[in-house]
Amino acid sequence: LLIHGDGVSARTVSKQPDRQDRMSIPPQQPARGGAIHNLLGQRDVRVLESCDSTNRVARLALDDGAAVGLVVVSEVQTAGRGRLGRSWESSAGQNLLFSLVLKPRVPLERAASCVLSWAAAMAEVLDCRLKWPNDLQDERGAKLGGILSELHCSEPEEADSWCVILGVGLNVNQLDFPGLPDATSLRRMRQRSLDRSVLLRDLVRAIEEVDPSHSSALDLWRARSNTLGRHIRIGQREGLAESIRDDGALIVDGEPVLAGDVEFLSRTDGT
Ligand code: BTN
Question: Taking CA 176 as the corner, what is the angle to CA 98 and CA 83, rounded to the nearest 5 degrees?
Fold first, then answer.
């Protein structure tokens, strides 16, 4: 599988995960799961105390036949992954670390733009801003959360057998971020702590309500953008972030950019 952009990273999946993979799936821990199960209703929900990465657990579950709609949520990740090969660190028991499996009814080439629409739906729930492609930020550009989305293909011969593992790391109740001056949390933004189970339900609901096939699917992203209208640096390129294309590409001085990290060179008023 090959798809441009880093909104979704490509991954080809074997139908038979190796033994090591199977054995490293932590046992399900129902203790904290009650509230989450009640809130998320009739679906496959795996509530874990610890795992290496919820995206990886979700992928292995899909290999084992789990269905679209699967949610994997964990208190701790020992090998949480971020975009562009980075790691994702999160204080135990404070934040939300989850993966949700989605199957949008769009052609595969539109998978990256689906992720932008889902990020926008989350930004609505959280009342926050978005940095291209999928960073959740406060008004001043501090990072609240991020998304790592991966394609999963159960039958590589069948064009339509792909789905997306949407991995979300969201800083909810953590107050201190040693060594990360650009990180923030919902608690820091709102001066109160939040119920993470309710938040998870609201996010999953909002994401699943999105219709990414609709022509206006990216309008919400544009409205919540921290990036459009600003001078940015991305990779070797510097210029004005003018718009996003329907496939999710960022247009910088008339040229599409498919992947990378945006650095702001100007404030939101363009100065
Ligand atoms: C980013 O780099 O901004 C994306 C971070 C995504 C982290 C989340 S935490 C839950 C899921 N599991 C992972 O290993 N990564 C994602």
Answer: 40
